[in-house]
Design goal:
Layout lengths: L1 H16 L1 H4 L4 H5 L1 H4 L32 E7 L2 E6 L4 E5 L6 E2 L9 E6 L5 E5 L4 E4 L7 E4 L8 E6 L5 E5 L4 E4 L7 E2 L15 E6 L5 E5 L3 E5 L7 E4 L6 E6 L5 E5 L4 E4 L7 E2 L8 E7 L2 E6 L4 E4 L7 E2 L8 E6 L5 E5 L2 E5 L2
Antiparallel strand pairs: 1-2, 2-3, 3-4, 5-6, 6-7, 7-8, 9-10, 10-11, 11-12, 13-14, 14-15, 15-16, 17-18, 18-19, 19-20, 21-22, 22-23, 23-24, 25-26, 26-27
């Protein structure tokens, strides 16, 4: 346990400091640990972490509006953000007024969130936490928590209200077919050229055909055609970590990660080609709105594409703020999560 915590805290420092240390650590493992391993549980000594029970977040915090946010999801006309210390914020996609969730059952750092409609959603994070909401993110219930080891989940995606997948540290894959009432682990095959299945699975998204994709280390993308039951490794040609990805309506896949790497596929991930990102800052999130695409990352990196991800125009922010997630606001702009709350970015 001490080794896990040390890696997590060092990675967190690398991410929040900027691009210098980011190339040696996975986005989710670093960002999610900023509060999860060292702070969210009262900064307990490493030897005691397995005995610490995360506390519920039941009262609004004045600092939540400026908290480190790690993931965003559209919930109908609203956007829900999750982040450090169990922070959950929500607001209208076209309004910057944010409201903190009234009740969150843990204060573990939350690293991923997904909604299937305006009301039903799930969030995941440290201690393998899986939370669910049926009221648009206003209140949450706990579906899973594993205090025997801090093996964080980094991303979650539901195909429909019953079938969902969560992925995380060391090739952890969990699936449900009952809306999260029960979760079951699925063991992965060993990747080509490796001795064991231990890739960190960092991002998760689906295409319009219902196929699931998980971005991973060593330039790998994993694809599932059966709602997460089985997975196949797809090599992009990149050797570093891929932190994020998205699928366009026409089936185009885009993935991004360390050192400004961007890769594109037009055939379900069978073949990939590199796309110029216009920068060397690691890319933490990609989102699409029709043919328009936005990519964000460390050191204030922002880039936009108007042609389905074939070409990107970078526009680095002057404040060099670490950016961690992005979604379309439905009005031509983009909502971006950062280490200091959320902001609105226009192309």
């Amino acid at each position: 346990m001490a080794t896990i915590v040390r890696i997590a805290v060092l990675a967190a420092a690398a991410l929040l400091a900027g691009p210098c240390g980011a190339d040696g650590a996975a986005k989710a493992a670093g960002a999610a640990s900023a509060a999860g391993a060292a702070g969210a549980y009262g900064a307990a000594p490493a030897a005691d972490l397995g005995q610490v029970v995360p506390r519920a977040v039941t009262a609004p915090s004045p600092s939540a509006q400026r908290a480190l946010l790690l993931a965003l999801a559209r919930a109908g006309e609203r956007v829900v953000a999750v982040g450090e210390r169990g922070t959950v914020l929500a607001g209208d996609a076209r309004d910057d007024t944010l409201v903190q969730a009234a009740s969150v059952p843990v204060d573990a750092t939350l690293t991923g969130v997904h909604f299937v409609d305006a009301e039903r959603g799930w969030a995941v994070g440290h201690w393998g936490a899986i939370l669910a909401t049926t009221d648009g993110g206003r209140t949450w219930t706990q579906q899973r928590l594993d205090l025997t080891q801090d093996r964080p989940l980094f991303a979650v995606h539901f195909v429909d209200a019953r079938h969902g997948v969560a992925v995380g540290l060391w090739s952890l894959v969990l699936v449900t077919d009952d809306g999260g009432a029960t979760w079951h682990e699925r063991k992965l095959d060993v990747p080509p050229g490796a001795k064991k299945a231990d890739l960190n699975l960092l991002g998760l998204f689906a295409d319009t055909a219902g196929r699931l994709y998980a971005t991973a280390e060593r330039g790998m993308v994993l694809r599932s055609d059966d709602r997460g039951q089985t997975w196949r490794y797809l090599a992009t040609g990149y050797r570093g970590s891929l932190w994020c990805g998205t699928a366009l309506a026409d089936g185009t896949l885009l993935v991004g990660g360390q050192r400004g790497s961007l890769w594109r596929s037009d055939d379900g991930g069978e073949r990939w080609s590199a796309v110029g990102s216009g920068g060397k800052s690691s890319i933490t999130a990609i989102a699409a709105d029709g043919p328009r695409v936005a990519a964000v990352g460390l050191d204030g990196y922002v880039a936009f594409s108007a042609d389905g991800g074939r070409r990107f125009e970078p526009r680095a922010r002057d404040d060099r703020l670490t950016l961690t997630a992005v979604v379309a606001d439905g009005a031509g702009a983009w909502i971006v999560a950062s280490r200091s709350g959320w902001l609105r970015q226009r192309p």
